[in-house]
Design goal:
The complex is a heterodimer of chains A (258) and B (249). With 258 residues, chain A is α/β, with parallel strands linked by helices. Chain A is 40% helix and 24% strand. Chain A folds into two domains: 171 residues, 3-Layer(aba) Sandwich (Rossmann fold), CATH 3.40.50.300; 76 residues, no CATH class. By secondary structure, chain B is an all-alpha fold.
């Protein structure tokens, strides 16, 4: 264990932050999540990969209950996921989420996007919220765009604003649902760099992605999903160089050699 | 040089033209307006329109919120309201408010003055009726807001009410300024139905004047013109506003 990660563990306290137990979900006849067991510890970066339709996005969205589950238990920081209402809203505020399609509030400026949750959910004062929003926007490199509307920004800039918006809530864990899949190739790196930095800073992250480079360099663990199941879990080096399952070998052979 | 005969005809026509250009001509043509408070009647129309527009905007927004609410009972109520109210003729709603609500159930609308009561009942009826249309216009606007907007709002911890109020409705309203302008124009013209219960608005006065004066077509034209003056600028302004406010995605 490196010094940095040892310090991180000591700082965060030990323990499981996100626990999924025996989670099942159907979309009609399609059994999209089958007996999912997954534990993410504090400070861990878990990358979920797998072919399209394997259930990775659905898995990500069940963690803050944007998708409900049919059976099984999900708990965050020791507390089971509440049903609906205020308790669920409170929990969601602690779980940052970044979407494939950015989903910045289209009628609000970049700055307002990052301030909104602080003011309406955290009840932060306006000035404090603005200061924090500007600091976060600087951190993700879009500080100069604060007064523009989302539609005036490039995809990469929008996604970085979306990350800042999620960070403004001081989340315990960040969910990334294919954050670079809607981006032009030249904009992918600027988003990945922000995510790398977050990982280095010790944020707990669950990242659904097709970016194998990011998985290799930033993940503590790779979770490989296929057909609604977790087929394989391993450290990135081990997974990419020596996958155990045939399904993973097949998948990797298709994406790594061409 | 023109022939003398034609010049004579020209001079003969002159006195007739002179009558047409008489400075008093306008007053002679429109003298049937004298003794009637046309502006006052249109002022009543404006008051009915403005109050009913505000009321139906509020009630319509509440109904739209109900129709997209996660609670089945609320959704059911919203759906039932819209489908019942928008399918009943406004005349019947207004007559019911007067003959039913006021006369049978004794709803006085907080006044004993017959005219004030009629006015308030008319506003109530117009609100109840047009709220159904506002609701549907707004609901179509809500459908233009991508699902991701609401998901992002919920993901940062906003509740259903906050998500609707801060994120979805502001974008929905911007999308439906033009359809709402249609409802407002219809509402302006529908205030004439208040004549059925004797509210002293434009149509009531028009009926009175038509009974007393000979120039019925001119009277109708004056009132038609009055409504166009009210609604045309509204439509143009809101059309422009709709373009200006459109959310860029």
């Amino acid at each position: 264990m490196t010094d940095a990660s040892a310090a991180k563990d000591a700082m965060a306290g030990t323990g499981d932050l996100v626990v999924l137990k025996n989670v099942n979900k159907h979309f009609g006849a399609l059994h999209v999540l089958q007996d999912i067991d997954l534990t993410i510890t504090r400070g861990e970066v878990v990358v979920v990969i797998g072919p399209s339709g394997s259930g990775k996005s659905t898995l990500c969205r069940t963690i803050n209950r944007l998708e409900t589950v049919d059976s099984g238990d999900i708990s965050i920081d020791g507390r089971p996921l509440p049903q609906e209402g205020k308790a669920l809203a409170r929990l969601r505020a602690d779980v940052g989420m970044v979407f494939q399609s950015f989903n910045l509030f289209a009628h609000k400026t970049v700055l307002e996007n990052v301030m909104l949750g602080q003011i309406k959910v955290r009840k932060t004062g306006k000035q404090a919220a603005e200061d924090k929003a500007r600091a976060l926007l600087d951190r993700v490199g879009v500080g100069t765009q604060a007064d523009k509307y989302p539609a005036q920004l490039s995809g990469g800039q929008q996604q970085r604003v979306a990350i800042a918006r999620a960070l403004a809530m001081d989340p315990k864990v960040m969910l990334f649902d294919e954050p670079t899949s809607a981006l032009d190739p030249e904009m992918i790196n600027e988003v990945l760099e922000v995510m790398q930095q977050l990982a280095r800073d010790g944020m707990t992250m669950i990242v659904v992605t097709h970016e194998m480079g990011f998985a290799r360099s930033a993940a503590n663990r790779v979770v490989f999903m296929a057909d609604g199941r977790i087929v394989e879990e391993a450290a990135p080096d081990q997974f990419f160089s020596n996958p155990r399952s045939d399904r993973a070998k097949d998948f990797l052979s298709k994406i790594l050699h061409h | 040089m023109p022939p003398p005969r034609s010049r004579r005809r020209h001079t003969a026509a002159r006195p007739v033209r002179h009558v047409h250009h008489h400075p008093e001509a306008r007053e002679i043509v429109f003298d049937f307006l004298q003794g009637y408070d046309v502006l006052g009647a249109f002022w009543m129309t404006v008051k009915l329109t403005v109050l009913s527009a505000l009321g139906s905007l509020v009630l319509g927004t509440l109904l739209a919120a109900m129709r997209v609410s996660p609670i089945p009972l609320m959704r059911g109520f919203g759906t039932a309201y819209v489908n019942i109210v928008r399918n009943i003729p406004l005349t019947i709603i207004i007559l019911f408010s007067s003959l039913g609500l006021a006369d049978i159930f004794g709803v006085t609308m907080g006044t004993s003055d017959f005219d004030v009561q009629g006015f308030r009942l008319a506003v109530l009826s117009l609100v109840v009726y047009h709220a159904a249309f506002v609701c549907e216009a707004l609901r179509s606007g809500i459908n233009t807001v991508p699902v991701g907007q609401a998901e992002a709002a919920r993901a940062i911890g906003l509740g259903f009410g906050q998500t609707l109020r801060l994120i979805v409705l502001p974008q929905a309203f911007r999308a439906v300024v033009v359809p709402l302008a249609n409802v407002l124009i219809a509402l302006t013209k529908n205030t004439t139905v208040a004549a059925a219960i004797g509210v002293a608005e434009a149509a009531t006065l028009m009926k009175t004047m038509m009974e007393n004066e000979a120039q019925t077509v001119l009277i109708a034209a004056v009132f038609a013109f009055g409504f166009v003056v009210l609604t045309l600028p509204t439509g143009l302004f809101l059309g422009w506003l709709g373009k200006r406010l459109a959310v860029k995605r």
